[in-house]
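Dear colleague,

Thank you for sharing your sequence with our group. We've completed the structure prediction you requested, and as agreed, I am returning the results in plain text so they can be pasted directly into your records. Please verify that the sequence below matches your submission; if there's any discrepancy, let me know and we will rerun it promptly.
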Amino acid sequence: MDTCCELRRQLAEKFATAARLYAETVVLLTRYPSNPEQDYNRLLAATEKAKNRSEAAAVAFEEHVASHQCGSPQSIDGNSRQVQRETA
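Please find the predicted structure tokens below.
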């Protein structure tokens, strides 16, 4: 079994990017001056969108890895699994 397939790599990149963008919006939100309220609300909405994208990317990545243990010795629930190969 390959340790990394192309789809896993793409999903991992999307997850990493989404998580980084979420973290950046949180930093902006927490450093933003309390006025004006309209800009704060816009930034808060952007932070929520970034959070949702990050969570969706995490789920897509985890589901892919769990579907065929692509590059992971553990299942999504953390239980170790042994990959057994059939011998001819």
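Summary note from our side: The chain is about 65% helix and 0% strand.

Kind regards,
the structure core
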